[in-house]
Design brief:
468 residues, alpha/beta, 3 domains, 8 strands
């Protein structure tokens, strides 16, 4: 019994040791991705600590650009936001980001306070605004490869402060995550004045609240949410979440993933909601254009240079096949071939196009080309070969079509020959007529010349006789 107890104790110790080792190893990996930077600010007249998360691919992909997220209250938001951002990236729901957490510690009230009369930043918080706007952004732009897309994140008091970056004359941030914002009394008016007409600049805006907030704070949040919901401006993409049966601390963990899903919705593959709202009613050429434009915007905003996902190709497939008699299957297949030349998909769609219009020889050729690209042990091989069998079963039609095509080509060749002979005869007739016209013209001129000479001679003789 003692021996078993001893072995069990040793086993437990080993498990705990292994767990501690794995935890330490995991923390070491995370630490390798995070840089601690002591930043000296002239605007603040002080040094601020920054936590900067750099994605693993940053060194290996030397030309790739990365969207930027700056977090206020980085002391406790940084790890939650970074963990969620990594999760979203691993699930292909968001691009890799460079994440900068600004450590505010006991300075957050001075950094983010507002004037109770004007609703604007105070003298002290205006310094923090200039630190972010003029110093930190410039440092990050110089030292890191940033894409155009920038996100600003705040919580409670700092969430109110990020809105001064919304209402400024020339906003440099695109997305704003307001976690339980302690809006100033004037902020709703400031936002309405700004967001009613954004002059083509697109904003992603997220905010949340819950019963854990005081009635006054919750009321101000709901006022902003109501305004955003009723706003007739397609360039403002907003979302409001109310977390019931939650706490202020727990809501941070709820708000951040909800905000990431909202802000980076364009990056994700086409969802059922996106398809129903934006794609379902499009024509085949418009559906293809929508897909291409989606990835152009992803590339521009997030610097990913991502090829169109195959699942997005499948998403619009029914539109291409079922509408307009499948006339755009060939265009669809050519687009896919440019993206994935090694994939059998392009051959499949082009083959389907030819099969639909009854050109079975060309359909068979494309189906065979596609089948050759598939591993014979693949699950798709049998399904793909059925396309070939289906066309081969129409062998008699193929032979008849080949005979018909041959006759049509011979007829076209004979017609071409006849047309050439007619053209030659017309040309020769034209040349003969031209020759005759020239000879007639020459004879006419000669006759006219002789008559003129004869008349001149008669005039001279008459003049001579008259002179005598």
């Amino acid at each position: 019994m003692r021996k078993k107890a001893l072995l069990k104790q040793i086993s437990n110790i080993m498990k705990k040791t292994l767990f501690l080792f794995l935890l330490l190893f995991s923390n070491m990996i995370i630490a390798q991705e995070v840089i601690i930077k002591e930043f000296t600010s002239d605007e603040l007249g002080a040094m601020r600590t920054l936590k900067i998360f750099i994605p693993k691919s940053y060194e290996s992909e030397g030309t790739k650009l990365y969207p930027l997220s700056i977090l206020f209250d980085g002391d406790y938001i940084f790890d939650v936001y970074t963990g969620n951002a990594k999760l979203f990236t691993s699930k292909d729901k968001a691009p890799e980001q460079i994440i900068v957490g600004v450590m505010q510690n006991n300075e957050r009230y001075n950094d983010c306070e507002y004037d109770k009369v004007t609703g604007l930043p105070t003298k002290a918080s205006n310094k923090f605004y200039r630190f972010i706007r003029l110093e930190l952004l410039e440092y990050l732009e110089i030292n890191y490869r940033l894409s155009p897309f920038r996100t600003l994140v705040g919580n409670t008091l700092t969430a109110n402060f990020i809105n001064y970056f919304v209402v400024e004359n020339e906003p440099v941030f695109d997305a704003f995550i307001n976690i339980n914002p302690y809006y100033s009394p004037d902020m709703s008016t400031f936002l309405q004045n700004k967001l009613t007409d954004t002059r083509g600049q697109k904003f992603y805006y997220y905010l949340n609240s819950g019963s854990y907030n005081s009635k006054e704070k919750h009321k101000r949040i709901e006022e902003v949410a109501y305004f955003l919901n009723s706003l007739d401006n397609p360039d403002v993409i907003s979302r409001y979440d109310e977390f019931k049966n939650s706490t202020k601390t727990a809501s941070i963990g709820q708000a951040i993933p909800a905000a990431l899903a909202h802000i980076f919705s364009i990056y994700s593959a086409i969802s059922k909601e996106e398809f129903a709202l934006n794609v379902k009613h499009l024509s085949p050429p418009d559906a293809i254009a929508y897909l291409e434009n989606k990835y152009v915007e992803i590339d521009y905003l997030f610097g990913t240079n991502m090829k169109i996902r195959e699942r997005d190709i499948y998403a619009i497939e029914p539109i291409i096949i079922d509408q307009e008699n499948g006339d755009y299957l060939s265009t669809f297949g050519e687009m896919i071939n440019n993206l994935y030349p090694e994939s059998p998909l392009s051959d499949y769609y082009i083959g389907m196009f030819y099969e639909k219009i009854g050109r079975y020889k060309q359909a068979l050729k494309n189906y065979k080309n596609g089948y050759a690209k598939i591993d014979e042990n693949s699950e798709d091989a049998e399904a793909f070969y059925q396309n070939i069998e289906r066309v081969l079963n129409r062998q008699d039609e193929i032979i008849e079509l080949e005979i018909l095509e041959k006759k049509e080509k011979e007829a076209e060749k004979e017609l071409y020959k006849i047309e050439k002979e007619l053209q030659k005869e017309e040309w020769e007739a034209s040349k003969e007529m031209e020759k005759e016209n020239k000879e007639a013209e020459k004879e006419g001129k000669q006759k006219e010349y002789e008559e003129r000479k004869k008349a001149e001679k008669e005039m001279r003789e008459k003049y001579r006789k008259g002179g005598n």
